[in-house]
Structure formats: structure tokens, C-alpha cells
Request: fold
Amino acid sequence: MKAIYQRELRAYFKTPVGYIFLSAYIFFASLLFALINLQGQNTNMMGFFSNVGMVFVFVIPVLTMRLFSEERKSKTDQLLLTAPVRITDIVFGKFLAASTVLAIGILATMLFVPIMELYGTPLIAQTVIGYLGLFLMGLFFVALGMFMSSLTESQVIAAVSTLAIIFFLWVFGGLSFRFSEIITGTFGFLGKTLDWLMNFISIQNRLYDFNLGTLNIVPVFYFVSLAGLFIFLTIRVIERRRWK
Amino acid sequence: MVEIKNLTKKYGSHLAVDNISFTVKQGEILGFLGPNGAGKSTTMNILTGYLSATSGEVSVDGFNILDNPVEAKKKIGYLPEQPPLYMDMTVREYLDFVYDLKGVKEERDEHINKICETVQISHVADRLIANLSKGYKQRVGLAQAMIGNPEVLILDEPTVGLDPKQIIEIRSVIKQLGKEHTVILSSHILQEVNALCERVIIINKGKLVASDTPESLAKSISNVNKFQVRIAGEERKVLDVLEPIKGIKYLKSLGRKEANSIDFILEAEPDTDVRIPMFYALAEAGLPILSLELTELSLEDIFLEVTKGQGGKIFEEVDESEIDFVNQSAEETEESMEESVAEAEEGAEQ
Reply:
């Protein structure tokens, strides 16, 4: 697992992928921070967190698209799968490498806290928990993207399908988050059911729990278990392929 | 060392490997021969645990590849048809990665350096794999398979796409490796298997059609009886001279390929060498032979012959003379190849 983790991590920074991901993420996160917190003269980062998720929708696919697609296309998967390592180790190695790059990005944007320190009194604990929520949500997206990458040889298809799914999850839940009253008011019982469903699926609701500064077991479990589910599915897909 | 029992692989409804069984003894070099699409790569992919068989069993040194994959894979070094190289790494980085991946216990630098020397890639160790030529990529692939000193080496068409000089070099490396390792090597070139292997297995359309030593496949190489000959002179005159010669079974004009000469295709009765009587007869008639070439019969042709109509005739039933052509011509090709390489090297030295 260690060998795969190291190779994968190095590959992120030997190819443009790691730099594209980090620069895009840090640029847009900084933009949001500048608009919401600096220009808004606000030390509460709730607004930042609920918007920066949208940046994730677009940058995570870049991070995950090559994980398995490229191996299959260049046939290097033959090396990994015939080496004396377990498939679980291969999948975890890759997942952890992508998560490390994600963590680097998030740590870099944590510099916003000392910046705010210069002008006011940021809510340290709440902000740190917010970042933790962001990271856990990122882990789920990474696992999802890795899963999509294991399904196809094409990096483009992997990226686009990951983007589409994350976007759907984000917007679908987001509708309920913002327009709950309108939906239930307009469509009656059906609307209520829909609203419940949207709330249930909603990523934004889970993230919101963190943004409030509360560390609940439910949203932590939500993200971690979803990440685990997609890691498991990736292992299954790769195992299954041998039997085709 | 390697044991394969009733191996069958289906891709949907397509039967890629059909009930193949064989064993490979320790220290043996086994050639795996078959035309393209015969199921060689599929079998090798199953042997190495990359694919799983639909039914049947594979065990390496007693470890079943399905029940005990990690132990079985430790014994195997695999060079797939397309070497599994990461283009964004240098040769050394890549071999270091493979070393870590396989969890090799031997001393790192010594082990990797030794392999680099064996396959002669030490001087490109710091170059990016993406920038290497096809021949060097193939060598790096071979080096990768050798890391960890696995007892069994499985090499899928190791010389495909290489130039003649590289082919000879890679072959000598494989021959060296065969002294310490069990080697299974696939090829669709009869000559290659002939030169390297102690035992040959031939498969076609997923079925095992023969298992024998190359020697018995190459029985009576001197029995030459089909060639193409170019003779200066008029077609009618030549035919008049050749037709009375005893032992010529088949004679056909191919028309003019060079000014003032005619090409003929000529087949003799088995166990008859008509070249000498032909030479004297033509010389007497004042019709010089400009060239005389053995007709090459490809392995695919043999298989067409073997499987014609019956789909499963065994290899031994093929007209033996046809196999001999291949061997004969293959040997000649290799000889001439080695000569030309030697010449090229001399030229380079001067």
C-alpha cells in the first residue's frame, strides 16, 4: 500500500494534475473568502463554507479522474494486479494519495484564519470544525470519483460523470436547503415527501451541521460511511473485472 | 512448478481458452506458440492472476492463484504484451517502485543495478520512460519482471516490435534467465521458440493442439521441397527443361519480376532434393538460375491446414514437410539476421 501511495502522490506533482487541482481550488476558495469575509467584514466563515462546496464540485473530478482510468488505458494495472499485493491495498493507496492532495489544499486555505486574526476575532473552534466538515465531504467526493474512474478507461468520462453526480447531489439538496417552504407550500403532500427526500439526501444539510460549529456523530458518519461505501464498491469493481 | 488444470475462459459467449491442461517443471523454458488470437495472452493473464478463469485451476509452486493470490504472485514475474510502464517516471524510479510494490527483501541498489546490467539499461536509468525507444521500453518491462528474483518468469511476446539486433539481445538474456528460472514465453514466431525453448506447447482457437520438443517438431530439416526460383530466359524454354526432371510435383510460373527473367514456384516430392538435377539441367540449356529461395510458410498457414474442416486435428497430422519449410527458412532467416547484425557492428567499429 505504501508503495502505491507514494507513487500516486508523486505522480500528482510530476504531472500537472496536482497543480491544477490545488491552484484552482485555492484560487476560487480565496476569491470566496475575499468576497464573503474580507469585503463583508465578517469573521464568521459559515457563508464561505456553504459556498466553497460548489468549488469542490468542479475540482474534485480533476483529482480523481486518472486514478484507475489511466492505469487501465496504459495497461499498468497489469503490473499492480499481478504484484503480490491485495486489491484493497491498491485501492486504499490511491484513495489516500488523492486525499492527501485534498488535505494539502484545505490546509492551505486554513491560512484564512490567521489573516482574519489581523482584523478581528475569528471563531476558531467553529471554523476548524467547518474545515473538518469540508474535508470529510471531500473524502466522500474523492471516493465517489475514484469509483467512477474504476468504471471506465476514459479520464474524460470519469471526470464528467463524477462532476454530474456531485453536482446533482449538491444542487438537489441545495434546493431543499433554500426553497423548503416554497416546495412544501406549492405541492402539498407530494411537496412534503419531496422535501423530506431532498433533506435526507442533501449534502449541504450535513455540511451545515459542521458549519454551525457542532461536531455531531450523524454528519461525520454520513460522509465517512459514504466514502467507505464507494471505496468498497471500487474494490468490488476491480475484483469483478477479472471475471469478465 | 506451474500447474494448469482444465483451464477454460469465456468472454461472454466467446470461448477464448478451451479446457487447457499442462504443467511446467522447475527450470524449464516452455514456449507457448500460436497464431494471433489463439488465447496465448489470455492464458498468461490467468496464470498471473490478472484475469480469473471461468473454470479450471492454476497453481504456482503449490499455491493456488485464487485461494492464495499473494503467495502465488510472489513467485511470478510477468512481462505482459504491452510492458506496464509509467511514462511519467524515470527508469530508476520505476524499478524502485516495482521493488517496493513487490516488497523485495534483497539489498535494493545491488539488486536493481544487477538487473539493469543484465538487460543493459544502466545507461538509461535516469531517463524518462516516455522518451525511451520501443526496444528499451521492452527491456525495462523485462527488468520489472525480474525484480524480486521470482522463480517463474512469464513473458508475453517479449520480442515483438524490436529490431533484429534487439531481438537477438533479448533472446540471449532470456536464455541466460532460463538457467536459473522457470520461464514461460509466448510467441507467434516458430523460429524464436525453436531457438529458446526446451518444450513447446501449441494452441489454436483456445485449444491445445500439440505439446512436444522443438526437435521433434523440426525433424529432418534437410528435407527441402518447396521454393521460388528466378531463371533468366524465356518461360517456354525453362518449362521444357524443368518438366522432365523427376521429383517435381508442382511447377507454376509467377511471371516476370525482373527484366529478362521468369519466377517459378516449385514443389518437389517429399524426401527429394531436386535442386541439384535442376541446376545441371538448366546450366546445360544455358538458362542461369538468378535466385533460389525457400518458400516461407507461416504458422498461420499451418494452422489453417491443421484445423481445416475438422477444427481439432492434432498437430502431428500436418504434412511434416510443411513444418520443415518453416524451420528451415526460419533458421536461415536467423542466420542471415545474425550475419547482418555482425556486419553492422563491424561497420560501426570501423
Q: What stands out?
A: The mean pLDDT of chain A is 89. The radius of gyration of chain A is 19 Å.
